[in-house]
């Protein structure tokens, strides 16, 4: 359940309700998966052809006779096509007793129709990456598949069918209700998420934007299936739907198929209802105090703002960056740099009707929450008037917004979802108008908006773990969208990419490989991409087991500190340079390894390469920035000391890695990690960089729109003379297959969601056919998303968990394979969850896989790989792996041949040989003492 797309630590906090984590699939050729019959509603069509409404910047809008809205966005640069059906219903439309119904219905639409009785399975069979999400104004159902006419037809058939023919059965509701309740409980584990919802609820007296999309427990548990069906019939209708097709397809073919599938759908006789509640102006400060078990404090402030279509909304988005960005934001400077808080962030909801601007500060337990609260409010309401916004602040904010938008615009999959979000705000063309408004935004616009909305009577304060003048703020109505777009023309469409074959053989034929002076090797794959994007990965390997002893903390912090500027650029200047170069940048480090990742556009690549050289060779490494990072890391760890999803995996990994405290691979407790980071000095980090980093060992991978000579420039100009003082010998991660199984139960008071984690290791080469057979066995057990044995039993049948999976991962250089199972559940269901998982594991080993299961798993797994390689970042990572493991893409071709040639006998034999349920090292963490007897 994810409330908005975000970045960094904030992404773990914000969420709009989604069905599950997307499932993938992949294959070069798609050998006709599970066949389906044509739904009753989409028999060969006598519907009128779609009427063209408008075309702007490569996006075409059409309208069917029954009211279905259609957007087409062709992009031939990826071998995938995305179909997104948006139903304009969300939690805003729910009535009394219906809280969470829109989201619950989203789940129910994956329970099947007479034509498609098993929706997750038929999607999985075709290698789809799919999901469903619910938000305040809309519900999305989307899938990304390998591009083909057949797959496009399938997706349109599926969506048009479940729009009106979904079962919505009582027995399905009974099992899915507990799954959704478990999702609700997962959100209850996060104090900041709960605090945000409490503040929204307090800020709205009457409007449903104050109601959580996930709903409340009683409505989730008690909703009658008859009411759910009524809600379904009321809102799931052709005149309340937009269908978006993006990716590689023929527009004329797509229009014909959309007419065939959606064109004959009938609307109910009753007209479509719309909401009409208007929230009155807030007439006084409101305060919410949340008291729960936790280790970190939060202070927040929320203010009512106009809808996403209003001109002032763009000013509020600029204020998100002016106030909340790191390190330029005013909140960051006044709270983080002054050591009143560990982190700050801000956001502004873009909605169909007036929404909220929210800002938060994360505060460690040994600091004053009241001081942080007061400073937060002072910066937002007082300081911004006394010290008006500057041109530099606004320009920086505008460039960040435009950079994020340009990077999004290079990915048709993301645009397919983004367009539906803007459509839910009133009109998809707001996506384009928003950009125009950002570019024309002035300091006066932003200052005026800040003065208008950031006032005490319009404020709701929220505090987790420890409160002014009758002034109403009238929020403007949404503008007349017809008038708004009457003369709007838009701009030229973004540059398209080439058609790309993501098969291993084709990739290797196009890949340029070579060596640099020292020990660096590279793999480069030039290709035309949408938006002329290019992705670069650089890995440096350093140190030995002996030379890195006692330096684990310094190693872990090195990458984070290197991202804080260079000797030429301080932190703010460095971030500004990344914005100017339209570059996404990250760098991280762990024992023996430092990896840098950057994505930019072709025109900026030479400057980005030079900047990469500065970061690697001449980082700033300032003591003051180390203190900021230290506080952030320690505060984050303190928050994990009572988190089930941190404690259970840590317990298992510690038992599977029997190293002493002096070993570099020793698995520390969370408290030990906190002590370690508190004791790292700036001199240790500087010495580590000076003596250990250089060009003696590492890999470079680059994929996208670039010239091959630019790769040589990176090696020659940035890395060639970079020698190192300390030798490199890889620290092996040998398997420990002889460890006995064990279970640890960990108490985490006041946590409504429990987390189960189990693992075992064995010695096996990933080049062995046995490994490929195990991959398929795991895929059938729990690697196939919603369509797997574990998901079918634990989630679909028993309703015990929102998420349950198994995974298999190999370390090629160590001949080591790790097998993992994990799940979340209500603490009350602990024993039942453990029993059901063990039963399914025993059944798999006893009965084996079936011929039908194996055939579907092969096809889905191969298609997953194909979809993954259509993503440049994933492909670059795969190329990087081939260099390190001294391979080419021929390894993946051979692995996929082994997958195709695997038999029922070989899969069952491998499962029984390597998987031993009694050897599982297990842990489950949750509030079990708090379970009512």
Automatic annotation (TrEMBL):
InterPro entries: Metalloenz_LuxS/M16 (IPR011249), Pept_M16_N (IPR011765), Pept_M16_Zn_BS (IPR001431), Peptidase_M16 (IPR050626), Peptidase_M16_C (IPR007863). Residues 227-400, 679-860 form the Peptidase M16 C-terminal domain. Residues 70-215 form the Peptidase M16 N-terminal domain. One of its GO terms (molecular function) is metalloendopeptidase activity. The keyword Repeat does not apply. Its cofactor is Zn(2+). Gene3D superfamilies: Metalloenzyme, LuxS/M16 peptidase-like (3.30.830.10). GO terms for biological process: proteolysis. Its EC number is 3.4.24.55. Coiled coil: none annotated. Keywords: Hydrolase, Metal-binding, Metalloprotease, Protease, Zinc. The keyword Protease applies. Belongs to the peptidase M16 family. This is Protease 3. It comes from Novipirellula aureliae. The gene is ptrA_1.
